[in-house]
Design goal:
The protein is of the alpha+beta class and 285 residues long. 24% of the residues lie in helices and 27% in strands. The chain has a domain of 99 residues: Nuclear Transport Factor 2, Chain: A (Roll). A hairpin with a 2-residue loop joins β10 and β11.
């Protein structure tokens, strides 16, 4: 997981985030376990590793403050950009009156002369659908910002389960909740956030990556075959819609995560051709 070392007050934490003085960690893209962190040598943010916590979200109160009435949200990623003095939050959001949970991007900027104050700039722009559809045009830009140096990133990746096969079971259960319109709204948002956490960025931010997984994991596969490539890597295969699905798994700092997915394209639904009406012969003169 990626997070900041804890500080004693929210004001000082926010000031450190936006001015680049806070210690930054980035364990989500590495195979090794988290290690102890060290103080940065200069004012620019640098990336290292630290110990994970149960609740890493520093800007959840800000997100909740600006949510429209009736909406529920669960953060999945926080990105502070000290040079721009902005904070970007990705969250699984279910708005009142809507049927589908969506991954929305919320952007905040520091209020001038208020080190501990943020105001909303972009309010809940959808960047990822959990249903099939065209990729968001700004998805590539989002990936670039997440990978940019000098930023403060919080992005837990991986679930603590007993093994690769249990990750598939957990994902299937969470996706079933996400797609159940009768489930409690908060439970659906949390389930979507859990699914996002179980996926590496190469899958989670790949346009239809989440939607494609939902099509093959709901309902849950009856049988899965697990091939342990190493202590930290495995391959899981199973049949879905009479086709073979192959998922690559890796043990991250926060648990097992899907890092690759080979999902055959769904067969197009057969269409019934409508016969053309017979052509009437021309009338004799």
């Amino acid at each position: 997981m990626v997070r900041l070392r804890s500080t004693t007050a929210r004001a000082s934490a926010l000031a450190g985030l936006l001015h680049g003085a806070a210690l930054v960690t980035s364990a989500c893209d590495h195979d090794e376990q988290p290690s102890s962190s060290a103080e940065p040598s200069g004012p620019s943010a640098t990336k290292t590793t630290t110990t994970a916590t149960a609740e890493p979200w520093r800007f959840r109160p800000t997100l909740d403050q600006y949510l429209p009435e009736g909406a529920v949200a669960e953060p999945v990623l926080e990105l502070s950009e000290p040079r721009q003095r902005t904070v970007l939050v990705l969250a699984a959001v279910l708005r009142g009156g809507q049927e589908q949970v969506r991954i929305e991007r919320w952007t905040y900027e520091q209020i001038p002369d208020q080190e501990d104050g943020l105001r909303v700039v972009d309010e809940g722009e959808v960047v990822l659908q959990l249903q099939p559809g065209p990729p968001h045009p700004e998805l590539a830009e989002l990936r670039r910002r997440v990978a940019a140096p000098g930023t403060v990133l919080t992005r837990p990746v991986g679930l603590e389960v007993r093994g690769p096969d249990k990750l598939i079971e957990r994902l299937a259960a969470e996706l079933a909740i996400v797609r159940n319109p009768s489930a409690e709204p908060r439970a659906r948002a949390r389930a979507a956030a859990t699914v996002f956490r179980a996926l590496d960025d190469t899958v989670a931010m790949r346009g239809n990556g989440i939607a494609e997984l939902a099509t093959v994991l709901v309902p849950a596969p009856a049988r899965t075959a697990v091939s342990k490539d190493s202590e930290r890597r495995a391959t899981v295969t199973f049949e879905a819609a009479e086709q073979t699905v192959t998922l690559g798994l890796q043990r991250k700092a926060d648990g097992w995560a899907i890092v690759s997915a080979e999902i055959p394209p769904a067969e197009p639904a057969p269409t019934t051709a409508v016969p053309e009406p017979p052509v009437e012969p021309p009338l004799a003169p």
